[in-house]
Specification:
single chain, 98 residues, mainly alpha, Glutathione S-transferase Yfyf (Class Pi), Chain A, domain 2, 0% strand
Length: 98
């Protein structure tokens, strides 16, 4: 039986999902997944990338996904919606303001 809590399995599944996404958007991407405007695809991508980062996915094979995410995280709406910026986020998970 497959253990869904196995960290290696999580990394493998996340990488497979993001490689598929990379393949789909590499020809349609502009600044974001589909051209230069944020779409629902980007809204869905951001938390998937966040999870994959927590699990240690190697993003060196995902240049399009990495670029899209890097631009998304600079947008005020994405920063405001980020789980680390929510009022109930434990202090040790909040971004450090210097």
């Amino acid at each position: 039986m497959v253990n869904p809590y196995d960290p290696a399995l999580r990394i493998k599944v996340a990488l497979l999902m993001l490689v598929a996404y990379e393949t789909l958007v590499k020809d349609s991407a502009g600044l974001y997944s589909v051209g230069d405007e944020v779409t629902m695809a980007d809204v869905a991508l951001a938390p998937a990338v966040e999870a994959a980062m927590r699990w240690g996915v190697d993003f060196s094979v995902l240049p399009t996904v990495s670029g899209i995410y890097d631009r998304l995280k600079l947008l005020p709406a994405f920063e405001k919606g980020d789980w680390r910026h929510q009022p109930d986020t434990p202090e040790h998970f909040r971004p450090r303001v210097e």
